[in-house]
Amino acid sequence: MSFEKLGLSTQLLKAVKEQGYTKPTPIQEQAIPVILEGKDVLAGAQTGTGKTAGFTLPMLELLERSKHLKHHKGLYPVKTLILVPTRELASQVAESVELYGKFLPYKSAVIFGGVKINPQIVKLRKGVDIVIATPGRLLDHISQKTINLSHVNFLILDEADRMLDMGFINDIKKVIAILPKERQNLLFSATYSDEIKKLSQGLLKSPVLIEVARRNTSSETVKQAVYHVDKTRKKELLTHLITDGSWKQVLIFTRTKHGANRLCGQLESDGITAAAIHGNKSQNARTKALDDFKKGKVRVLVATDIAARGIDIDHLPHVVNYELPNVSEDYVHRIGRTGRAGKSGEAVSLVCVDEEEFLVNIEKLIKKDIPKVWLKGFKPDPSIKAEPVNLGGNRGARSKPRGGGHSRNRNNSNSRSRR
Asked: What digits encode the pLDDT tens for the residues 178-227?
């Protein structure tokens, strides 16, 4: 099927063509016609499936179809509200809205914390049709009465599972409570936990269920490998793989913010340009790090799971799990950053004896054994015994690995600070 058959306007088709796309992805092919019919949607889609365009394009089309409606007095009313969990994802969605809506007259604003609120207020007062926001900063605007949501007719929750993981459920409920009852709702989630099902039941009206990828599956376009190595030699092995393999663009995951900073500094000392991205970085620093990585100014981007959500790079060749995640589902999200848009990619995990339980649980989740590699000169010392894994929080306790569907004990105050 081509985009022309999906019922989009000529302006949108022109914008799609400019981006080089000729054929919709499965999520776009299934979701766009249903959304254009005005139905609520519950969509299961992993990162890299094209889901952002899957709701951005029909949203813009519906705005165009309703442009004859009058504006209301007072603050310029927002017509579409898109809620996302992180700053990076907010920026990514905003970029998609701008790219696909470039030939349409609709204005958008992106709202998140970590930056000054006054410029956002100025933009909202000038009038916008579309708002892309993280829940915490949106509530700040609502409390200051700097945003008018009384005429929202289109609500989108993107990566709803991550928003719940980060403790935003109460914030989401507060926002929903002030929206008009009559509206179209879309909920996109990579996983279907009990919490997601409960949220969807209270939000969606007779939704159409769309699922394009089985839950917890690892991409067939990603070549996976596990390198067994002692913990103290991980950095040495990583440097060897990057330099020996002439890797030019590498996204590396650590479990903690401090670990990301430390690894970034170590790579720089080895002559490998690197930048770190995590919740303790300012928004300007995070944006610059991501831009430099995309432009090839830095070879390596070191990230934590929370900060990496929303990073969208079509042709990222290499992902490295410097430390395995203790939440097994995060492994699937991590390696989904490569092997996108029909391209092949490589996902490498550096695993020490402390992380063997994590590996076992990940393989159970994805229902396959990941190929193991023992590189000459880096074979682990069999006399080393496993020790408790430091997750940066409960330092004294052994962390038990968790599989898909389990909630994470992240409290509201900690997660709010990461938005």
From this structure: 999 999 999 998 777 778 888 898 899 999 998 875 445 555 678 999 99
Give CA–CA dist 312/318, Å, rounded: 14
Q: Which helix (H) or strand (E) holds 317?
A: none
Phi/psi for 272 (5° steps) reads: -105, 115
Sign of the Cα pseudo-torsion (177, 182, 186, 192, in order):
positive
H or E element, residue 86: none
Q: In the CATH hierarchy, which fold is given to the domain comprising 222-403?
A: Rossmann fold (3.40.50)
**pLDDT score of 307:** 65
Q: Which residue has the higher pLDDT, 57 or 409?
A: 57
Nearest to 238 by CA among 297, 316, 321: 321
Coil/strand/helix, residue 54: helix
Task: List pLDDT tens digits, range 297-348.
Answer: 999 999 987 666 656 676 789 999 999 998 887 888 788 778 765 567 899 9
CATH number of this structure's domain 3-211 = 3.40.50.300
Per-residue pLDDT, 393: 47
DSSP assignment of 359-393, as one string? HHHHHHHHTSPPPEE--TT----TTPPP-PPP-SS
Q: Do domains 3-211 and 222-403 have the same CATH topology?
A: yes
Distance separating alpha carbons of residues 102 and 113, to the nearest angstrom: 26
Question: What is the pLDDT at residue 299?
Answer: 94
CA angle 283, 83, 147 (to 5 degrees): 85
Average pLDDT rounded to a whole number, residues 135-160:
94
For residue 352, pLDDT over 50 is answered with yes
Q: What is the Cα–Cα distance from 117 to 372, expressed in whole angstroms?
A: 49
The DSSP code sequence of 388-413 is PPP-SSSTTSPPPPB-TTPPP---HH
Is residue 296 exposed (0-12), middle (13-18) or buried (19+ Cβ within 10 Å)? exposed
pLDDT at 313: 72
Q: What is the CA radius of gyration of the chain?
A: 22
Structural contact between residues 306 and 237, judged by C-beta atoms closer than 8 angstroms: no
- E-assigned strand segments in 307-371: 318-321, 345-351
Token readout for 410 is 């992240």
Identity (one letter) of the amino acid at 255? R
Q: What ranges do the domains of the chain cover?
A: 3-211, 222-403
189: which 2 tokens?
A: 């989630």
Q: Characterise 190 by phi-psi region: left (phi > 0), alpha (psi -120 to 50), beta (else).
A: alpha
Q: Does residue 391 register a pLDDT over 80?
A: no
